[in-house]
Design brief:
Elements lengths: L2 H12 L4 E11 L8 E5 L4 E3 L7 H15 L2 E6 L14 E10 L1 H7 L5 E7 L10 E5 L11 H13 L3 E4 L5 E7 L4 E5 L5 H10 L3 E5 L16 E3 L3 H8 L5 E5 L4 H11 L6 E4 L4 H13 L9 E2 L11 H16 L13
Parallel strand pairs: 10-11, 10-13, 11-12, 13-14, 14-15
Antiparallel strand pairs: 1-2, 1-5, 2-3, 4-5, 6-7, 6-9, 8-9
Helix pairs in contact: 5-9
Length: 346
């Protein structure tokens, strides 16, 4: 969920404005915006967010004005149209269902609930004038802030496992949008190098908690990395013991020196993490394997090490290298290899 949008909506509410919220509750086929994308619209001709690539926002805005005028919640349906100049619809080959409703303090509080829980929106897309939205929070122990069918509770907990929004359509025609609210993933950077400066900045934009560490105190200084959540002048084992790592931790080694990299690998043995990448040329993988064999380190107890780290973007500046690293991390998070989208077209 885009926290910048909800913060803006909260400011409008606090200022006494009436605010409507439009949410993509179901997608069939492709869509330019992901599931649970939102717009917040006021009666004073202001809005933030998007539910398409600009195709239907004007129509959603107008519907929101009707909702704010007292018409009640509305369900809007959009599909691909051949000529968007004369029809309202999508340019992409897909369909979206958009729920438009009044945002109040109670609903805003649910949207900004602290981790860990699942926000549930249960509604009836087949009844555009009476979608009857029901909102609830479901916590990991299976309790909920409102009464929900048992099957919805089970599906909410299943959505929490995959940590991304999902839609389930039920036999009675109702649809549930599940939005897991979980702590941010952690980007753990070993090596306070220049590349770390833009890398932390990119990661922060993407919602990561960022930790930079270096065993050399002169390198690990907080003033060099104002965007980092933590800067630690510690050895890898101390960092991992302090920060903790899990399957939502992405580890990047930016230090070329074997003494630091080897200390990191030894500290990670037997731990489950989401990603492990190390900067350097392909020859480093051979050298790493030789050192591991000599020291008795079993590299099979570690996740695959991405070396050279990042996607092949061709850039050499710190900013370009950082971009290639964060791009690979995003690809790994979504189970993709990266590369040009156009290369996949027939």
């Amino acid at each position: 969920m885009n926290q910048d949008l909800t913060r803006q909506a909260a400011e409008w509410l606090a200022a006494g404005e009436t605010v409507a919220m439009a949410t993509i509750v179901r997608i069939r086929g492709s869509s330019s915006q992901p599931l649970a994308s939102r717009m917040f619209i006021t009666s004073r001709q202001r809005f933030v967010g998007a539910v398409s690539g600009g195709c239907v926002e004007s129509d959603v805005y107008q519907a929101a004005q009707d909702v704010l005028a007292g018409d009640g919640p509305l369900m809007l349906h959009y599909k691909h149209v051949e000529n968007p100049l004369i029809e309202i619809g999508l340019n992409c080959e897909g369909q979206i269902d958009v729920l438009v409703e009044v945002l109040d303090e109670k609903l805003l509080a649910q949207l900004t609930s602290p981790p860990t829980c699942v926000n549930v929106t249960l509604c009836s897309p087949n009844e555009p004038l009476h979608p009857r939205p029901l909102h609830a929070c479901v916590w990991p122990d299976g309790t909920a802030s409102a009464t929900l069918p048992d099957v919805v509770l089970r599906d909410a907990l299943a959505a929490l496992e995959v940590e991304r929004p999902q839609t389930v359509t039920y036999p009675d025609g109702r649809v549930a949008l599940f939005e897991p609210i979980v702590p941010p993933p952690t980007l753990l950077i070993f090596g306070a190098e220049q590349i770390a400066v833009p890398l932390v900045r990119f990661a922060r934009i993407l919602g990561f908690r960022t930790v930079i560490s270096d065993a050399r105190p002169a390198f690990a200084t907080p003033d060099k990395y104002p965007d980092a959540d933590e800067v630690l002048a510690l050895w890898p084992a101390e960092v991992i013991a302090r920060v903790g790592v899990d399957t939502r931790t992405f580890v990047v080694s930016l230090n070329h020196e074997p003494r630091f990299e080897d200390a990191l690998l030894h500290a990670l043995v037997g731990r489950r993490i989401a990603y492990l990448g190390a900067i350097g040329k392909p020859q480093r993988a051979i050298e790493r394997a030789e050192r591991a064999q000599a020291s008795g380190l079993d590299l099979s107890q570690l996740p695959p090490i991405h070396t050279p780290i990042g996607l092949d973007l061709g850039g050499k500046s710190p900013e370009e290298v950082a971009l290639s690293i964060i791009a690979e991390i995003v690809a790994v998070r979504h189970g993709r290899r990266g590369g040009q989208l156009s290369a996949n077209q027939p």
